[in-house]
Amino acid sequence: MTNNPAGPTGPGRLATPTAHLSTTPPEPARAAARTFAMRFTSTPRGARLARHLAAVRLDAWGVPYGTDDHDAVVLIVAELTANAVLHGNVPGRDFHLRLALLPAGPRPTTLRVEVTDTRGERVPPRPGDPRPEVPAVDETGRGLLLVAALATHWDWHPRPDGPGKTVWAEYEIAAPAEVRRIAEHAEEVWLNRLADEADSEGLQGSVSLDEMAAKLREGRS
After folding, report:
1. What is the CA radius of gyration of the chain?
2. How far from 95 is each of 77, 104, 109, CA to CA, in Å?
């Protein structure tokens, strides 16, 4: 289980706000309800700080310390940031961590983890590619095996705004209270927008907001 730490320490720098780095986001229409982005020094200390701050942010988003979902996402962050430090390190260059909480819809809530480094010539295998067998006594080379076992999806793509790559993973959780509140607000906005569009087209009364909300709830069950 992940312990609740006393407070953040170590080297970290707030990242300049950047656009979503993925060139092929799985669901472009599902805008992130919450995001966290930060650059860290490409050192073991930077990786530890990234893991620590990810744990704090997940707890603030309603994925509390001590739960399986919290521990799994923090482990994904730990493995991807450790790989960025070990295999993506370029002297003087930071790595970038981005967390995105995609709002709940007909499917479970999705947490997306992206770790970007600036070393483009060393890339991981694609999901499903054959991998050399890792000796039982070798503790390296197992990070992506853990990520693949925990994540719903994972992959990587070249960094679009410079040299390097982004490795990402998505993890689905049952929506906690805070996530449900975010999702319900997003649903209300979406339903009201549909009603406005229907009214502008002269279709008012064809489907009520309650009926549309009921259909959404059916999709979640």
Report:
1. 20
2. 12, 29, 26
* pLDDT band at residue 57 under the 50/70/90 scheme: very high
Amino acid identity, residue 134? V
Q: What is the distance, to the nearest Å, from the Cα of residue 187 to the centroid of all Cα atoms in its chain?
A: 21
What CA–CA distance (Å, rounded) separates 101 from 31? 9
Which residues make Cβ contacts (< 8 Å) with residue 110, sequence separation at least 6?
A: 30, 101, 102, 152, 170, 171, 172, 173
What are the φ and ψ backbone dihedral angles of 125, each rounded to 5 degrees?
-70, 155
CA distances from 123 to 88, 89, 166 (A): 8, 12, 10
Angle between helices 177-200 and 209-220 (to 10 degrees): 140
For tokens 């609740």, name the residue.
4
Those residues whose C-beta lies under 8 Å from the C-beta of residue 184, and which sit 6 or more positions away, are none
- pLDDT for the residue numbered 122: 86
The predicted model gives 93-121 an average pLDDT of 87
Residue 133 pLDDT? 56
Look at the pTM and tell me if it is higher than 0.85.
no
Share of the chain above pLDDT 70, in %: 57
